[in-house]
């Protein structure tokens, strides 16, 4: 039987957006934590740490998100964990985020003028103190616009986890399309919901960037 | 954890993976070429055209950039037949790749064009260059040189995103990986192998694009960026 694309189908798709959002928030937190460590390692004084972080960033940015997903999915199973797909999805998205956020935040840390390092070390700040009180507060301001911009990429890429059966937006669209055969309406709706989530974030990122440049110039 | 890695069954099906790799290369190659041209064309149109053109181009760019590539692919693959346009999975995939990359390229090239200072254009015109010559040599070439690194990263991301085309059963590298997996049941080994192939591809493409940048834009080329920056 072919179902119609009615309000209940629409609500089903809309409700599945909560998994997209949850997945985004969880992988942003987890990936942010990991990405922060990557950024610190990438700007470390120890060459091996720097190389390790550079390698990590190069690998994550050089492989498809889909492969990260499969490797997390089957890798966790191999390691003996019997976990719901949502966990593997979160892990893969967090790995993905760590590679990109690590690189964004490395740039932000290095964008802080080197005199700030010199001045703070002249004041006998220890390395952690330099980070805590001098460098990171300034790096954070530089990092916010591109980080918000990356959030859009993350939301969009969560669509890929639909392949391991997490019923988020894209998967919900697929299910409804299989029942109704109205691809334009169904995927149009899905696209519209993604757009409603992503566009405000894009605009915010652009505004923050404009403000940062204005303040720098002023 | 008595798991033994077994790569032999995977290597035995290397022919399938190579078939997939070939299709991935074709999708990425044609997609990047056409997507880049579309981007340059639209950025030009946006700069030269009137208000309506600008609004249309901006709408296209924003729509594409704020929705997932997967959903765009599904709309084209499942949606086009319902308005009478029959596309094979490969054609749908290629259209989606070009449309997607086109939007990002438009945005990147636009930023490059806008970074060219007015005085440069006035200088060009005062040297009796035609408007087209000014656009070609004074605006477009430096703009492209300036945004070449950004374009290159976008090309690499697009190449990696071709893996998503396996969702509509295009038999590229990821789809072939899934085939080999279902034949051999060596899931992890298959995907590690394929991941390394993608990684090698990404590295090669980056080198190629950096080299191309150095040839196309000898001054201020992307070559310097290739070296990367070492942390302080």
Short description:
With 218 residues, chain A is mainly α. Chain A has helices at residues 7-42, 47-61, 65-78, 85-111, 114-122, 127-157, 169-180, 183-217. Chain A starts with 6 loop residues before the first helix and ends with a helix.
What structural keywords apply?
heterodimer, A: 218 residues, mainly alpha, MetI-like fold, 8 helices, 0% strand, elongated, B: 232 residues, 10 helices, disordered C terminus
Q: Could you explain the architecture of this structure?
A:
- The complex is a heterodimer of chains A (218) and B (232).
- Chain A is an all-alpha fold and 218 residues long.
- Chain A is built from eight helices and no strands.
- Chain A has a single domain (7-217), classed as MetI-like fold (Orthogonal Bundle).
- Chain A has helices at 7-42, 47-61, 65-78, 85-111, 114-122, 127-157, 169-180, 183-217.
- The longest helix of chain A has 36 residues, at 7-42.
- The termini of chain A are far apart.
- Chain B has a single domain (11-223), classed as Orthogonal Bundle (MetI-like fold), CATH 1.10.3720.
- In chain B, 78% of the residues lie in helices and 0% in strands.
- In chain B, helix 3 (51-65) crosses helix 5 and helix 8 runs antiparallel to helix 9 (187-216).
- The longest helix of chain B has 35 residues, at 14-48.
- The two termini of chain B are 42 Å apart.
